[in-house]
C-alpha cells in the first residue's frame, strides 16, 4: 500500500529563489511546521511567497503534498548555502504541530509511513533520517522534541521500513523505556519493579541524575561491569537534567546545555551554542535572561532557586 503524493510544484521561474541547485539527496530531514495550517496551505504559501525558505513535502492528517522537485535543493535546515542539510536532504514538514492533538497525531503517523516509503524506494536505512536540529541546532521538530519522542518516531519509521517488524524486538527481547520529560531514574525503576542500581548497570549510567529526555533505558538485559563516565555533553537531542550542585567544568557544561535546551543559549552564534564549560559573562547573561522571565532575581548567579526553576522547566 503506497502513499500517493499530490503535487503542487513551484514554477521554474522561482527555482532561483526556492531551489537553485541540482540535488542528489542523501538524507531526509523532518520538521514540525510550528503552525496549524494544512499541507495544501503550507505548500501553496511556500511556493507563492517571496521568501527563499522552502521544503519538498508537507504532510497533514489526510495527505502528502509535494512543492519542489526532488532533484532540486531546498532551504530548510539553516546550515548555510553549502550545508549538507540544505544541499543534500529532502525536507518533510509535519503539519498542525503548533496545537497538537488528534490532527497532529494523524499527520505524524502519515509522515512516519511516508518517510518509511521514501527510504524504501531509495534502499536507504534509518540512518538517513535526520531532524532539523541535527543540522543547525534549531529546536525543530519542536513538538516531537518537547515530548521527548524523537527516538520513538525513528523507531516507528524503522518498524514500517522493516515491514511492520520492529528491528529491536526482532533482534532482542529486551524491553526498553524512553525517558519522558520530568522522569527520574528512580521513578522509572519503581514503576517497572527494578532497582536503580540494576538500571544503571544495564544502561551503563554512572550518575543516576543524568538522564536525557528521549534516552532509551533498557529494562532487562545483562548487567555489565563496564561503565563510562560521561566527560562532555554535546547539545542533546533531549535534555539533560541538572540535579547536582554547580561546581565547575563539566557541571558548567550541564547548566549551559540546559540553558540551550530552554532556548537561553549561552552564546547563540558560537559553536555548540557556547557550551564550553566556562561560566563567563555570556553564560551569566543567559542565566540572567532565564531568571528574569522566571520570576527570579536576575543576578546571573546559578543558585538553588535558579537550579530548581530550571529543573522544573526541563
Ligand atoms: Zn525545521
TrEMBL record:
Assigned EC number: 3.5.1.28
Cross-referenced PROSITE patterns: LYSM
Q: What class of enzyme is it?
A: hydrolase
Q: Source species, please?
A: Bacillus mojavensis
Q: Boundaries of each LysM domain copy? A: 175-219
**What does UniProt list as this organism's lineage?**
Bacteria, Bacillati, Bacillota, Bacilli, Bacillales
Instruction: Provide the family line.
Output: Belongs to the N-acetylmuramoyl-L-alanine amidase 2 family.
Q: Which reaction does it catalyse?
A: Hydrolyzes the link between N-acetylmuramoyl residues and L-amino acid residues in certain cell-wall glycopeptides
The name this protein carries in UniProt is N-acetylmuramoyl-L-alanine amidase
Alphabetical keyword list: Cell wall biogenesis/degradation, Competence, Hydrolase, Sporulation
Amino acid at each position: 500500500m503506497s502513499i500517493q503524493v499530490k503535487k503542487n510544484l513551484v514554477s521554474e521561474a522561482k527555482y532561483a529563489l526556492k531551489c537553485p541547485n541540482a540535488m542528489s539527496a542523501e538524507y531526509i530531514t523532518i520538521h514540525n511546521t510550528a503552525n496549524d495550517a494544512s499541507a495544501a496551505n503550507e505548500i501553496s504559501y511556500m511556493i507563492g511567497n517571496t521568501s527563499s525558505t522552502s521544503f519538498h513535502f508537507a504532510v497533514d492528517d489526510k495527505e502528502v503534498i509535494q512543492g519542489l522537485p526532488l532533484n532540486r535543493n531546498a532551504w530548510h535546515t539553516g546550515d548555510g548555502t553549502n550545508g549538507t542539510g540544505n544541499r543534500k536532504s529532502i525536507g518533510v514538514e509535519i503539519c498542525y504541530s503548533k496545537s497538537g492533538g488528534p490532527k497532529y497525531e494523524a499527520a505524524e503517523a502519515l509522515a512516519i509511513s511516508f518517510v518509511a516509503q521514501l527510504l524504501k524506494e531509495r534502499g536507504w536505512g534509518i540512518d538517513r533520517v535526520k531532524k532539523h536540529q541535527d543540522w543547525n541546532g534549531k529546536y525543530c521538530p519542536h513538538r516531537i522534541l518537547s515530548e521527548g519522542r524523537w527516538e520513538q518516531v525513528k523507531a516507528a519509521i524503522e518498524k514500517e521500513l522493516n515491514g511492520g517488524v520492529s528491528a529491536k524486538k526482532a533482534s532482542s527481547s529486551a524491553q526498553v523505556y524512553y525517558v519522558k520529560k520530568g522522569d527520574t531514574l528512580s521513578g522509572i525503576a519503581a514503576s517497572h519493579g527494578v532497582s536503580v542500581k540494576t538500571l544503571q548497570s544495564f544502561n551503563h549510567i554512572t550518575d543516576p541524575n543524568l538522564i536525557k529526555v528521549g534516552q532509551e533505558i533498557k529494562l532487562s538485559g545483562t548487567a555489565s561491569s563496564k561503565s563510562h563516565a560521561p566527560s562532555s555533553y554535546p547539545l542533546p537531542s533531549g535534555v539533560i537534567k541538572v540535579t547536582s550542585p554547580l561546581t565547575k567544568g563539566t557541571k558548567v557544561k550541564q547548566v549551559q546545555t540546559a540553558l540551550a535546551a530552554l532556548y537561553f543559549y549561552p552564546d547563540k552564534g558560537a559553536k555548540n551554542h557556547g557550551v564550553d564549560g566556562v561560566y563567563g559573562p555570556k553564560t551569566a547573561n543567559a542565566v540572567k535572561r532565564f531568571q528574569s522571565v522566571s520570576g527570579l532575581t536576575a543576578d546571573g548567579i546559578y543558585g538553588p532557586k535558579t537550579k530548581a526553576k530550571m529543573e522544573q522547566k526541563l
